[in-house]
Amino acid sequence: MNETNELVEQPVSSPTLDAWTVDTEVAREETDLSSDWEMVIGLEVHAELATKTKMFSPGRNQFGSDPNTNIHPVCLGLPGTLPVVNGKAVELSIRLGLALNCTVQRCIFSRKNYFYPDMPKDYQISQYDRPLNISGWLELANGHRIGIERAHMEEDTGKSTHVGDSGRIHDAGYSLVDYNRAGVPLIEIVSHPDVRGPEEAKAYVAELQAILIAIGASDGKFEEGSMRVDANISVRPAGSNELRTRCEVKNVNSLRSLGRAIMYEAKRHVDLYESGDKPLQETRHWDEEGGRTRPGRSKEQAEDYRYFDDPDLVPVDPSPEWIEEIRAALPTLPRERRMGLIASGATVEAATIAVERELDGLAAAAIDAGGDVGRVMTHVEHNLAVDGAADLDAGNFADLVKMETGGELTATQAKQVLAEMITGGKTPADIAKERGFEAMDSSDLEATLDGIIEANPDEWERFCSDDPKAKGKMQGFFTGQVMKATKGQADGKAVAQLLAKKSS
Amino acid sequence: MSDQTNNSDALSIARAVRSDETSSVAIVDQHLAAIDASEAEIHAFNLVLADEARAAAAVIDQRVAAGEDVGPLAGVPIALKDNMCTKGVPTTCSSKMLEGWKPPYNATVVEKLAAAGAILIGKTNMDEFAMGSSTENSAFGVTKNPLDTTKVPGGSSGGSAAAVAAGFAPLALGSDTGGSIRQPAALCGVVGMKPTYGAVSRYGLIAFASSLDQIGPFSNTVADSAALFEVIGGHDPRDSTSIPEPAASVSAGLATGVAGLRVGIITELMGTGDLDGFEPEVLAQTRAAAEALAAAGATVAEVSVPSVIYGLSAYYQIAPAEASSNLARYDGVRYGVRQEGSGNTASMMMATRTAGFGDEVKRRIMLGTYALSAGYYDAFYGKAQRVRTLMINDLAKAYADFDVLLTPTSPCVAFDIGATSDPLTMYLNDVCTIPSNLAGHPSISVPYGTGQGGLPVGVQVLAPLQGEAIMFQVAAELERSANAIKTTSKNGAEA
């Protein structure tokens, strides 16, 4: 892995935003090919394991330290040093294997030999023909299962910073190497080519991230490089089963980039085929600014890694007892948590968001306590994306929803009460009382509305017209006026019903 | 030079120091004087640690005076092959590549020696990165055989063997990948032993071929090697291939004798059949050794171990393959020498490796790189590993009928410096020693009489995995027999 930096500098600074949340712009980008073609995508995800020390060394595993402070003779590969497997890294890797429904097997560490200055031994200890986890699957929220070929353990490399005009190694004035990351434990999760488009690829990576975080195997922070993705992309005529020449796209640093890179690369392949040409099997690098992939080393010229079993290490053979112990201690996985909410009546989308925000437990408890599913999930989706929401008392939350569905609070009032519940921890009844919230009597509401209609005859006429545009606009006007007059205490739904009744 | 007189063996020295009959400082001075007298000619050392040794000896003497238990090797000087890491002390592997490099840590054996009271007196010369059988491949000049300075001391641990033979130190450590302890021990007329793979920690031993390398003792007596093995052996959590057991106890059985033991002479390594180049005197001494064991009550017979003849071929795939990977790290980026090249990383690495490595190291890196290459792996490295398995099975069959096996250590006695320019001829020196490395078994070379030019012959005792106790038991009998013959011939000459 990590051949990327042979041609393109690894980004030194991290993206400032959370680059891995799906942003709305993506949704507007093209996400599919013409109906004649389909995409065949396999993903290789590297995740750094959340251990205290490195994969084979007592060196510290910590992000963000001063350069070359988390080092030790072993992870520096000093002459005479020997690797010793970090048992915690194996445990976390088994956890992931089990969470991905893999078979966990006796495994062997191999050496992948190639020269690179940020790799202290000039070989990487990885796993080759006997990986720890094989043959699993991951189920996406839409129910599609992506096959997992393997999830194996390996060590990370250090980081080079090339100082010079281009920031590339070949014409750098000099390079600085930081070995803090060298030897950090990684798990590489290789999917089967089961992914069919950029949206599915993003969903797969997001789900994998959620699992890694849920089981405590990795912090899953893309912006700190603790998760990295390479995509193997090819296309084929829609409906065929063939596997055509693939390109491996590297240097993809966000979920958004992943989607864009896949789309770009797939279209490039289609264009080549449609013009009578065909793609070369090669490694390509995603150029974020240019919005395109560029060729790296072609596979024909690829280095021969001369894999062989690492004679300094012995096979890792997890006992069935240990595996079962780890399985028994696994937390409920995101998929099952989603399924639980969906079974209670939540939509797939709402359940997915609840799990992503770690609010599924609160939602489930509130629903159990008698809160209306729709209202509970609406609050989770729209009103609880704030710090402290997860600490909300589920009983109080359920009571709030009951007050709302029982007509004691309007939706707007409920939202305000909820916000105060998060910061203050009081019961909804107390807050509503303090604020003087009580749902308006329907006769009071009708009287208020009548007064407003009387004061605005032109608007009322336009509301009663057949022009749907004018009607919609005036509906907003009258609702707004009622809310203003009632200081937000009117129920929007009741206002709409009254307006409809009066204009018919 | 290695007469068994008072105070030339390590156990006598340790006894004398512990009981305050002599001081460690006096012992160290005595050995430094020997070094002063002839090291310039022999060149056993890359570095003599005179001041450090005196200081360490003074501490031992103070601790003896204070009534402390100073350890089984109290005050005994020991020479260390220059591929074992010593904190703050240059460790070069006799390569320009590591010239001036000071490890920031100690090898496990170095810690164990210090805990046992031994005094590190110097770092010994070797074939560069332990690749060679004559110590002529050192970047810092050849080591000469103290018994005849026109001859090589063997290798790759030639400096350690020469240091013991020359009386520079009663003990030394070497490393043995294909015979690099036993062959120089034979050529210098001292005892040298390769432990079971995993019996001694490799942490801090600069790797040549990781699946074959083992650290082991040199000494003038079998008892000293047994004692040193007991000190350096035992589990080390820093070496994943270390056997998870405490150090084996082997000294207790040295006087037991060999009555009732079954000794097999490996037919294929007695100059018959496909392997030639065995000197007749070497074969004669090996047979004499077998007869001596028979006379002492052992059952002796020949046994065929057919696959040993493929040992050399398999070894010269496996060892270079591992070396090509182990030596990749010497790229000029982090330590050791650096040649700038033409201004980019790849050319810097190439220039560094071109300048830093000697010919034999380059030859083996190329051999090993080829053996591991895609498309050749199965034909070379894969096949060699299958030969290794075959040899382990063949040896297991032999050990069903025999307790130990016997062979010459080297097909020849010490040869002239500069005489062997063909690498393949040089590789043949290891034909008898390689099987133990491939199988991971222990074996020991014991001096047994002389061959051409009056130079010493070594006889090798092989034992199965973790069979050190019985191996030492047989070695001790061979030593008694060899000493008896020496005494007889001496008395005869005087008469």
Structural features, described:
The complex is a heterodimer of chains A (504) and B (495). Chain A is α+β, with helices and mostly antiparallel strands and 504 residues long. Chain A has three domains: 3-10 and 38-327, no CATH class; 334-435, no CATH class; 442-503, Arc Repressor Mutant, subunit A. In chain A, the strands form three sheets. A nine-stranded mixed beta sheet of chain A has the order 2-5-6-9-1-10-11-12-13, with helices on one face. Chain A has a three-stranded antiparallel beta sheet with strand order 4-3-14, with no helix packed on it. The model of chain A is unreliable at 1-28 (pLDDT under 50). In chain A, helix 3 packs antiparallel against helix 4, helix 13 crosses helix 15 (468-485) and helix 15 (468-485) packs across helix 16. Chain A is 37% helix and 18% strand. Chain B is α/β, with parallel strands linked by helices and 495 residues long. Chain B has a domain at 10-255 and 471-494: Alpha-Beta Complex (Amidase signature (AS) enzymes), CATH 3.90.1300.10. Chain B is 40% helix and 12% strand. Chain B is built from 15 helices and eleven strands. Chain B has helices at residues 10-18, 24-42, 50-65, 108-115, 158-165, 182-188, 222-232, 280-295, 311-326, 345-356, 359-372, 378-401, 423-427, 434-439, 468-494; strands at residues 45-48, 77-81, 119-124, 171-176, 191-194, 214-219, 262-266, 299-303, 404-408, 443-450, 456-462. An eleven-stranded mixed beta sheet of chain B has the order 1-3-2-4-6-5-10-11-9-7-8, sandwiched between helices. The longest helix of chain B is centred in the C-terminal third of the chain and has 27 residues, at 468-494. The two termini of chain B are 23 Å apart. Classes of the chains: A alpha+beta (504), B alpha/beta (495). The A-B interface holds A 73, 76-85, 111, 113, 115, 117, 120-123, 169-170, 175, 177, 304, 306-308, 311-314 and B 83-85, 91, 93, 98, 101, 103-105, 107, 202-207, 209-211, 237-241, 321-322, 324-325, 328-329, 331, 333-335, 344-346, 349, 369, 372-374, 377, 381.
